[in-house]
């Protein structure tokens, strides 16, 4: 497609105006208007002829292997000019799906080839996604401008590139590296501290200062000296990370507006924050010797992976969590938690990552969580709503602002009521900000292990 640029249109559009001015000032020189029009058309034709053909401009698109949700990545665009005597300005536009954030137009200046040697310009284009899934780059539109900027020629190059968008496990890896450097958490070897844990490890000679309750009188009588039992923490617990993938978890953390400008994390759905925290907990649990499984449900059960041990099982958790889709259905806690309870044959730590609005909508959820807590230890995890404190803490300037603050305070109170009800039913509760939920979850997990609550 060949079209004039804005400069070229202005050049030709000025011809009638110039002819009118000449006709009023000097009618005998009206022919100058036609001369100007002819010169303008010749300039357009010369600019079009000087423009390189479509074959002279070769493009190559190199997408990233994976795109981590919420994290900027780069798409590499290589433009090679094989022929031509003038530099060429190229504007590139991608056909892409709505879940990708790309610049609407990328402008690149390609220098002219020297001594018949092609010139290649590499451009890195920022790309970011707010949702997980698979996105497609359908085509790239290349718009070439002439050397005088009067004409442009546009071509379409099909791409059909599929980009896989996965949870932001880079943040999980960085936090996991920080955890692995802290030898005080699990230690390089099994910790065998006297009095810690309930799993018998060995017998050793009793020393002053040891807990007298650890003395093994039977073996002491046999060996004719006081022997004390050594215990260590059990490391073969079952940990199941359960994700609620219902419609409440698909909403951005900052509401339908996506949160404040300049805070990309609040534009992510709640489910993605939960997945990042869940993967961090899964890594720490596998590193600590526990068995980790994954469960996801909304109106029906989406994923169930039985608990398995070993740090080499962590890629399985990554793969399964990357395939979790956003559902628009309401969560069926009765079906989901009953199914999970039937699948587990031994007492486990169930980390339930979900969300609720008020006491009315949470009534059925509380009932089923309480039923699950009768057999297992349930850690109920929810994200703090960042908008509620902002609305409550902002000084109201109008009657509508006062009404919003009253409603926000009521919702906050109802959330506290639900969490208190769960605590009284024996459920461990954790409500944390999105930027601290992973760390707080690890700390709560370590506290549970230390107290041997599982």
Report on this structure.
The protein is α/β, with parallel strands linked by helices. α1 packs antiparallel against α2 (31-50), α3 runs parallel beside α5 and α9 (387-393) packs across α10. The relative contact order is 0.09. 35% of the residues lie in helices and 29% in strands. The strands form four sheets. Strands 1, 3, 5, 7, 9 and 10 form a six-stranded mixed sheet that branches. The chain has a six-stranded mixed sheet with strand order 15-14-13-16-17-18, sandwiched between helices. The protein has eleven helices and 18 strands.
Distance between the termini: 69 Å
Largest sheet: 6 strands, mixed
**Uncertain runs with pLDDT below 50, 5 residues or more?**
182-196
Portion in helices: 25-40%
- The tally of beta strands, per DSSP, is 18
In DSSP terms (H or I, runs of 4 or more residues), the helix count works out at 11
Compute the CA-based radius of gyration: 33 Å
Task: Throw out a few tags for this protein.
single chain; 454 residues; alpha/beta; six-stranded mixed β-sheet; 18 strands
């Amino acid at each position: 497609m060949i079209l004039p640029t804005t400069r070229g249109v202005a050049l030709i559009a000025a011809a009638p105006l110039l002819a009118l001015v000449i006709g009023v000032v000097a009618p005998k020189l009206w022919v100058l208007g036609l001369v100007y029009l002819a010169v303008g058309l010749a300039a357009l034709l010369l600019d079009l002829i000087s423009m390189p053909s479509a074959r002279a401009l070769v493009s190559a698109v190199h997408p990233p292997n994976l795109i981590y949700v919420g994290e900027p990545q780069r798409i590499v665009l290589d433009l090679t000019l094989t022929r031509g005597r003038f530099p060429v300005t190229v504007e590139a536009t991608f056909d892409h799906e709505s879940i990708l954030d790309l610049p609407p137009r990328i402008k690149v200046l390609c220098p002219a080839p020297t001594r018949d040697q092609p010139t290649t310009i590499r451009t890195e284009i920022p790309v970011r996604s707010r949702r997980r899934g698979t996105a497609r780059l359908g085509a790239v539109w290349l718009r070439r401008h002439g050397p005088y900027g009067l004409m442009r020629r546009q071509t379409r190059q099909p791409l059909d590139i599929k980009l896989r968008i996965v949870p932001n496990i880079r943040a999980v890896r960085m936090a996991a590296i920080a955890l692995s450097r802290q030898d005080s958490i699990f230690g390089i070897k099994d910790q065998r501290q006297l009095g810690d844990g309930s799993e018998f490890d060995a017998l050793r000679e009793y020393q002053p200062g040891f807990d007298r309750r650890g003395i093994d009188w039977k073996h002491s009588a046999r060996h004719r000296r006081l022997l004390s039992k050594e215990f260590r923490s059990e490391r073969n617990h079952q940990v199941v990370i359960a994700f609620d993938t219902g419609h409440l978890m698909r909403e951005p953390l900052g509401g339908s507006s996506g949160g404040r400008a300049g805070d990309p994390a609040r534009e992510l759905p709640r489910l993605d924050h939960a997945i990042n925290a869940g993967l961090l907990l899964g890594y720490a649990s596998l590193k600590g010797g526990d068995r980790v499984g994954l469960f996801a449900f909304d109106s029906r059960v989406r994923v169930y992976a039985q608990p398995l041990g070993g740090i080499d099982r962590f890629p399985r958790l990554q793969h399964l969590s990357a395939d979790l889709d956003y559902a628009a259905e309401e969560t069926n806690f009765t079906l989901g938690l009953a199914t999970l309870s039937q699948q587990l044959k031994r007492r486990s730590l169930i980390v339930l990552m979900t969300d609720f609005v008020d006491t009315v909508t949470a009534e059925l959820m509380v009932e089923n969580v309480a039923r699950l807590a009768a057999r297992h230890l349930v850690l109920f995890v929810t994200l703090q709503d960042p908008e509620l404190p902002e609305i409550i803490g902002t000084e109201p300037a109008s009657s509508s602002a006062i009404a919003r603050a009253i409603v926000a305070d009521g919702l906050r109170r109802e959330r506290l009521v639900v969490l208190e009800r769960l605590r009284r039913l024996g459920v461990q509760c954790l409500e944390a900000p999105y930027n601290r939920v992973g760390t707080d979850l690890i700390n709560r997990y370590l506290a549970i292990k230390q107290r041997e609550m599982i």
